[in-house]
Amino acid sequence: MNQFKWLFKIVLLSLASAGILLTGCAGTASKPAQVLAPDQCVSPQNLDQDLVPEVRFESLTCSFKKFEGVDTLHMKIALTNVSDQPQRFRVNIFLDNGKAMGGLIPRRLKDGLVKPGQTVSFEYPFLNMTEKPKEVFLRITTSEP
What we know:
7 strands, alpha+beta, Immunoglobulin-like
C-alpha cells in the first residue's frame, strides 16, 4: 500500500514539474530554500506520519556517526505514550530511496513498558547512507508485549 503512495507522489511530482516547464515561470519570484537545522532530518512537509492515538511523535533528528567502521546516517526518534496504559510501540521508518528501518520501543521488556506520559527515544542506523533523505514516512503502532 505504501509503495503505491510513494509511486503516486512521484507521478504527481513529475506531472507538476512538467506543467511548470510547459507554462513557464515568468513573473514569479523564486522562493528561498528552507534551511534545516543541522540535526533536522527533513522539513515538516516532507515527513508523512501514520500514528496510533496512543503515541505522540516528539522529534526525528539525524546525525552521521561511525557504524561498523563507516560513516552512517543515524535517525533518532523520540515519542511519548499519551495513553493511560503502559505500551510497547513498533516504529517503522521508510526513506524515499527505498531503505527502511525500525524496531520495538522498548526493545527488551526487562525494564518494563513505556509508562503513561513517559517520553522515550531510540536511534536507528541506516547503512550505506551518506546524506540525509529528502522524504521520510514514519509509522508508529502499538505492539503486544
